[in-house]
Amino acid sequence: MLRAMKTEIQLRKDELQNRSLKSLYFGGGTPSILSVDEINSLIDEVLHHFSFEKDIEITLEANPDDLDKNFLKQLAGTPVNRLSIGTQSFFEEDLKLMNRAHTASEAEGSIKRAQDFGFENLSIDLIYGSPTSNLEIWKENLHKTIALEVPHISSYALTVEPKTALDNWISKGKVKSPKEEEQNREFYYLSDFLKDHGFEHYEVSNFAKPGFYSRHNSSYWKYQEYLGIGPSAHSYNGFDVRSWNVANNQQYIKKLNTKLLAKEEEILSKEDQFNEMIMIGLRTIWGVDLNSLKNKFDDRFLEYFQNEIRQKVEEGILVIENNHLKIPEKHWFMADGIASDLFMV
């Protein structure tokens, strides 16, 4: 796998216009697949073809049970300077429902161990709206997070995917289905609580202390180019081409062994580009830059857009500030639905 990924980096080195990288992200459960030596080797390969900005953010995504003392000790000697930990919850019942391998104590312990080894730039994932939880348990989860001094939090409502164990349990009546009104209440408690503790709510599902915004994810939300390496990885040229690698590891390796890319791509129509710009922008504190919209799309799009937003602006569901269209935070729980109402079809 390592050799295939290095080959892909070599073959795709010219796809990024910007040769100086401000972020590098190892995702997809990497610690359980790659050793620290392999992570270092991949970083060296990237450096062979690109330069790093002085304060580059290099993130490693991990599950709590991946982060034992030996792994963290080795990792502390690498350029990795940020960890994104899939905590999900500090309560056993939640973790069992989500079929997580780690326990509540491991969730807390992994964060403390990471800090002990010098990793202060941490992000954790938290899930709200679980049928095994309630507002009081959610409050305890958040108090625990604050006590652990984690500077970045990504938080999502529990969703039920078809044909999963959770879907089966709900259909058989073993578990209650998540309730939107409870998720709504927990979302706004989350937002208010974290702001009271110095966090900035900068994207619908993301909160950070000042200076700890995710640089990597912020590039997605600002429509910038990115290059994804490895099975299932996605890439975007910043304009009109999106590509993705095959998910199957063996197919990926086999193709790269012949010096061919194991990817597919699509050309985004103007409608696709418009819809994505609206969807992504309205999920952030930055909103949709109306000047960029005007420069990128012709009158047909702009007339449609002006007609669609008029009533929502009058109702206060949308606001225009400094020539940026935004959703007021009190409506952020419904952001995706509000954005989809503006889509060109």
Automatic annotation (TrEMBL):
The keyword Acetylation does not apply. GO terms for biological process: porphyrin-containing compound biosynthetic process. GO terms for cellular component: cytoplasm. GO terms for molecular function: 4 iron, 4 sulfur cluster binding; coproporphyrinogen oxidase activity; metal ion binding. It comes from the Bacteria. It is found in: Cytoplasm. Residues 1-200 form the Radical SAM core domain. Keywords: 4Fe-4S, Chaperone, Cytoplasm, Heme, Iron, Iron-sulfur, Metal-binding, Oxidoreductase, S-adenosyl-L-methionine. Pfam families: HemN_C, Radical_SAM. The keyword RNA-binding does not apply. InterPro entries: Coproporphyrinogen-III_oxidase, Elp3/MiaA/NifB-like_rSAM, HemN_C, HemW-like, rSAM, rSAM_sf. Belongs to the anaerobic coproporphyrinogen-III oxidase family. HemW subfamily. Probably acts as a heme chaperone, transferring heme to an unknown acceptor. Binds one molecule of heme per monomer, possibly covalently. Binds 1 [4Fe-4S] cluster. The cluster is coordinated with 3 cysteines and an exchangeable S-adenosyl-L-methionine. PANTHER family: COPROPORPHYRINIGEN III OXIDASE, RADICAL S-ADENOSYL METHIONINE DOMAIN-CONTAINING PROTEIN 1, MITOCHONDRIAL. This is Heme chaperone HemW. It comes from Chryseobacterium jejuense.
